Amino acid sequence: MTAELIRNTLGDRHCALSLVIPLYNEEQVFPQLRSRLVDALPTLPDKIEIIFVNDGSSDRTRELVEQAAAEDPRIIGIHFSRNFGHQQAVSAGMQASSGDAVAVLDGDLQDPPEVLAQFLARLNEGWDVVYAIREHRKENIFKRTCYGGFYRLLAMLTPIHIPLDSGDFGMVSRRVVDQLNAMPEQHRFIRGMRSYVGFRQTGLAYERDARAEGVSKYSWRKLMGLAADGIFTFSALPLRLASFAGFLIAGLAFLYAIYVIIWKLISGEGTEINGFAALAVGVFFLGGIQLICLGILGEYVGRIHNEVKRRPSYVVDEIDVQA
Length: 323
Ligand code: UDP
Ligand code: MG
Hints:
Number of helices: 11
Bound molecules: uridine-5'-diphosphate, magnesium ion
Radius of gyration: 25 Å
Structural class: alpha/beta
Shape: elongated
Number of domains: 2
Distance between the termini: 19 Å
Helix content: 40-55%
Number of strands: 8
CATH class of the largest domain: Alpha Beta
CATH topology of the largest domain: Spore Coat Polysaccharide Biosynthesis Protein SpsA, Chain A
Strand content: 15-25%
CATH architecture of the largest domain: Alpha-Beta Complex
Low-confidence stretches: none
Oligomer: single chain
């Protein structure tokens, strides 16, 4: 069951605002999340839907979402058949959404629901994308440095302007959601795809809270995967850098060869560096460069491989919605 099936199940709906919230093993924060959302609702349009996407949780998240959807007609639950990842969960929520505006926020209350009214005000002023800019992160210094470094590296590599220090938290207009939903790619880096769409985009600074309960559901492995998707789906520059490195090293080797020949002709002897050590360094250095280039190529080939298989990027087990 993929995007079309989700839409068929949900039928013809329309609301002013959809909230898309991915959840992976968030039983600890869920009660708090729900009450903070309910508290923020008076500042938001009445015609609202809250889409919780349960990304294959193995704790009680599923039961909690089912119960919430049974109690409140504004709540929709989408349950994946297993853990497919945050970006897939957000994509599924967007496919299911029927709002004129669609907001994406994390389920751990790091993205405060109280800010949504400000996003909506900006959208009503005519903006199509309002992305949240994280003023202060409450993560440890190592993680903060990694995040900061990544966004700056990405900015250097890609021709598309992806705002620094902004995640998926934000709100977009219907025409932007329609564009995002129409993008068929499996490797989804939503904050980048949102920039790619264009139209009128603006940032809004906010204070990023610490996670309300529980621990991060983004393992280092998942985080690295997301960072790699960001770089390799938004830039072909690494490939070009590989050819630059090739030209540079070949050029230097050529100059060195000329130097050796001239030296030989003038002095009749070999150069001072003709030992085994120099040779070994040269071989290992070049071997390393070649493996790195092969690795870079592999990142692209692996992604092409995944894209051509055309497998559904997520599988839905069940949808909770009141008739
Ligand atoms: N999440 C998800 N699938 C995953 C990992 C995370 O749906 O495989 C959700 C998670 O429940 C949360 C959001 O994505 O609502 C962001 O994850 P988290 O807060 O753990 O990441 P962090 O803020 O530590 O980067
Ligand atoms: Mg978080």
